[in-house]
């Protein structure tokens, strides 16, 4: 079998394994849906969020939907893969796979494919809940959905590769969650997922702009929020070209680090 065929066959295996893990399903698959429901229920009484006095406003749920979609991408890619692969290194799974014809490329394809499958299902669930349960209006133009598609694909690929790269940091499977989850949580708070990005201190916005989550959230806001809301971004624009550039740059970083650091067996094992 070719590398591509083996990688494709691994996607189904990895996806089934993912849904057999209750903690992964809750903390990466259902978490954004639950958080969107909580934010909508908790803050809707404050009224709509407006970019400026007299401008068109949106409900709290509609405002936070783009950030939750971006957070879902990060959780599915970075958090899920970093913890999962670190665990496989620790319990000997990677060592056993290293003794088979499976190549690192096929292994990566299986992991990235699983992230795409679960990420797409998660985004679909989040959008269905937003539209049917929370009454959030979704975009109606082809242009908006095409933007959603490329931000989702580019963000998912980048997050998956960064998750593989980050898996080299934990010293063991037991310490993986302690290492990975704080990183992911901090990024969510400073990147406009749980807090309005425009209300964060300028220095915090600048720090967040270094990392990909801020740009994924900004790309999603360009899709789901009225155009008036672009004045709340750092440059007063959606800057979709810059969103693409930053995500591609992080994709390359993740790919290079993943390939350089990945080992079937830890060097210090």
UniProtKB/TrEMBL annotation:
Per its UniProt entry, which superkingdom is the organism in?
Bacteria
Family matches, as InterPro entries: ABC-2_transporter, ABC2_TM, ABC2_TM_bact-type, ABC_2_transport
Q: List GO terms (cellular component aspect).
A: ATP-binding cassette (ABC) transporter complex
Q: Which GO terms describe its biological process?
A: response to antibiotic
Q: Which GO terms describe its molecular function?
A: ABC-type transporter activity
Protein topology in the membrane: Multi-pass membrane protein
Residue ranges spanning the membrane: these are 24-43, 63-86, 115-138, 144-169, 176-197, 240-262
Q: Where in the cell is it found?
A: Membrane
ABC transmembrane type-2 domain sequence ranges: 23-265
Provide the alphabetized UniProt keywords: Antibiotic resistance, Membrane, Transmembrane, Transmembrane helix
Q: What is this protein called?
A: ABC transporter permease
């Amino acid at each position: 079998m070719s590398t591509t065929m083996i990688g494709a066959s691994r996607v189904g295996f990895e996806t089934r394994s993912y849904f057999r893990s209750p903690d992964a399903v809750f903390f990466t698959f259902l978490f954004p849906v639950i958080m969107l429901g909580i934010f909508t229920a908790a803050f809707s009484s404050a009224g709509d969020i407006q970019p400026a006095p007299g401008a068109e406003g949106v409900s709290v749920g509609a405002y936070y939907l783009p950030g939750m979609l971006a957070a879902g991408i990060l959780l599915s890619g970075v958090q899920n893969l970093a913890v999962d692969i670190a665990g496989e290194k620790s319990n000997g799974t990677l060592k056993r796979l290293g003794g088979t014809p499976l190549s690192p490329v096929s292994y990566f394809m299986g992991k990235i494919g699983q992230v795409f499958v679960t990420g797409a299902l998660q985004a679909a669930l989040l959008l269905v809940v937003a539209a049917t349960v929370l009454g959030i209006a979704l975009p109606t133009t082809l242009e908006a959905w095409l933007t959603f598609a490329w931000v989702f694909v580019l963000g998912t690929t980048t997050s998956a590769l960064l998750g593989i790269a980050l898996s080299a940091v934990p010293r063991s499977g037991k310490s993986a969650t302690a290492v990975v989850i704080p990183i992911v949580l901090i990024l969510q708070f400073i990147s406009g997922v749980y807090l309005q990005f425009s209300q964060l201190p300028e220095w915090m916005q600048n720090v967040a702009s270094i990392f990909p989550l801020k740009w994924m959230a900004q790309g999603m806001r360009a899709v789901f929020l009225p155009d008036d809301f672009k004045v709340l971004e750092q440059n007063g624009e959606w800057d979709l070209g810059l969103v693409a550039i930053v995500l591609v740059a992080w994709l390359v970083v993740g790919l290079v680090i993943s390939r350089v650091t990945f080992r079937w067996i830890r060097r210090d094992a």
